[in-house]
Write a structure and sequence with these properties.
It contains 17 helices and no strands. By secondary structure, it is mainly α.
Length: 366
């Protein structure tokens, strides 16, 4: 139990660390990063008023985790997609109308740090304005960006064999991404990521390479008949695994991987996670210093490696200035331990997941 809780905490906190570090250079070329930060690029947070601020990747992860907990509170597996969609829509409303008077379902909506407008995917926000969200079978767009991949990571974090059968992890991971990103590259990457996070948090002592290989294989077997692109994505991700070597020129490989589409960002995160010899600091520097989507790759790398190493392995200097640490700690603990049948279904749980009210001082203003 303690090992899994540490893995869950590490996943959410690591995701935020990589996001906060990467978003300040997101969209810049490697040459521009070096011009701004020196020949070795960005080596730590670029603080804003003393704070390492998180972007939409952490925000969406927090909202999705809250949505999954709303579904768990109702004890119905079929409700998972509904409440993931509900939480995503609520996040989008808070991005556009911070003072939206409508009833909120998610207690994280009360946290001002989770409403900042950083790294917003405008096409994703457009998709969330529709009454009906996309599915893998009926996409609403062909967006292949990585904007909603962190939602799939939360699906993996919520996995418990008592809650769902293992094959459903991939299905739900794909569905979570397809709501806003209808390209097969995006939602199939969501399936791989959900499988990888579920496997790592269940068995953190198993090598990352094994988890990645199993997740890719599970996605390919499960989806290739319906979506032929599954084989192409599997080949792309396996190539990133082959390139992983602590002695290689990691930055050159990150440029080679491009890290722009969802599949490329996941490939970059897998490569960075495997090439750092178990050192989170080394992985973070590699994950954000390239010409691709630095916040996305940083967030995914932090989630994967944080789940593997556990929260205790995260250097304190990454956490002391980081936004919303207490919020993420609460969500991690609730995903791991808090269900109506766990004995933790108390007044605090009721406030958070029935009435949408935070419990504790998270700096909320509403």
């Amino acid at each position: 139990m303690e090992s899994r809780l540490s893995s869950c905490r590490g996943c959410l906190l690591g995701l935020a660390v990589g996001d906060a570090m990467g978003y300040t250079v997101d969209g810049k070329s490697w040459q521009e990063i070096r011009e701004d930060y020196g020949p070795n690029g960005l080596l730590g947070y670029d603080l804003a008023n003393g704070t390492a601020e998180v972007s939409s990747y952490t925000q969406l992860a927090a909202y999705t985790a809250n949505g999954l907990l709303l579904a768990l509170n109702r004890g119905k597996l079929e409700g998972y997609p509904k409440f993931i969609g509900l939480s995503m829509k609520e996040w989008a409303r808070k991005q556009n109308l911070p003072r939206d008077p409508e009833k909120t379902w998610c207690w994280v909506s009360k946290i001002p740090q989770l409403r900042r407008r950083h790294c917003r995917d405008s096409r994703m926000l457009d998709a969330l304005r529709f009454d009906t969200l996309g599915t893998p079978e009926a996409p609403t767009n062909r967006n292949d960006a990585p904007g909603s991949l962190t939602a799939a990571a939360m699906v993996g974090l919520a996995f418990d064999p008592k809650r769902m059968d293992p094959p459903h992890v991939g299905i739900l991971g794909a569905k979570a991404v397809a709501m806003t990103h209808g390209n097969a590259d995006a939602f199939l990457s969501g399936a791989v990521l959900a499988y990888a996070v579920a496997g790592i948090t269940a068995e953190p002592k198993v090598p990352l390479m094994t988890h990645f290989e199993q997740a890719i294989s599970a996605m390919e077997v499960q989806f290739s008949d319906q979506f032929p692109y599954a084989k192409e994505l599997a080949t792309q991700l396996k190539k990133a695994l082959e390139l992983a070597d602590p002695d290689c020129d990691g930055q050159a490989v990150m440029e080679q991987l491009e890290c722009r589409s969802a599949g490329q960002c996941l490939a970059g995160a897998m490569f960075a996670s495997l090439s750092c010899a178990g050192d989170l600091d080394t992985a973070m520097v590699l994950a954000v210093n390239h010409s691709g989507r630095s916040a996305a790759v940083g967030a995914l790398t932090g989630a994967l490696l944080g789940a593997k190493l556990g929260a205790e392995a995260l250097p304190e200097f990454y956490l002391e200035n980081l936004d919303v640490v207490a919020v993420l700690e609460t969500l991690a603990q609730d995903l791991e331990m808090g269900t109506p049948t766990s004995g933790l279904f108390d007044d605090d749980w009721d406030l958070k997941y029935t009435r949408g009210i935070p419990v504790g001082n998270y700096g909320q203003t509403e």
